[in-house]
Amino acid sequence: MTHKEKWLAFAPAGLIVVGFGTCLVQWATEKKRRGESTGEWVAAGTAALTVFNAGLCLFGRGVAESVLYQIKEKPREMDYGNVGRL
User: Fold this and answer.
1) Distances 33 to 9, 17, 23, 43 between C-alpha atoms, Å
2) 48: phi then psi, degrees, rounded to nearest 5
3) What SS3 state is found at 13?
4) Is Transmembrane helix found in the keyword set (predicted)?
């Protein structure tokens, strides 16, 4: 896979997983509000935060792949041999 393909896969996947993790956090909060046992809402909250953080990691990987794409695959916009000569 090229850096561009990885970027276009990881960034949207990360956003989707972050959104899902956010929904799960709300679900765990609702469990606590309803007075369910501490073990249930703590486990739900832990799972929710794990999913949320996984989404952040995926999105971050997408950003890294975007930078690598811009550095390695895009044509160079500036000839660094002429730096200083205006």
Assistant:
1) 37, 24, 15, 15
2) -60, -45
3) helix
4) yes
How far apart are the C-alpha atoms of 81 and 79, rounded to whole Å?
A: 5
- Residue 63: which of 14, 19, 2 has the closest Cα? 14
Burial of 35 (0-12, 13-18, 19+ CB in 10 A): exposed
List, for residues 42-83, the tens digit of each pLDDT value: 999 999 999 999 999 999 999 999 999 998 876 665 555 555
Instruction: Give the end-to-end CA distance of the chain in Å, rounded to a whole number.
Output: 39
* Tens-place pLDDT, residues 14-49: 999 999 999 999 999 999 999 999 999 999 999 999
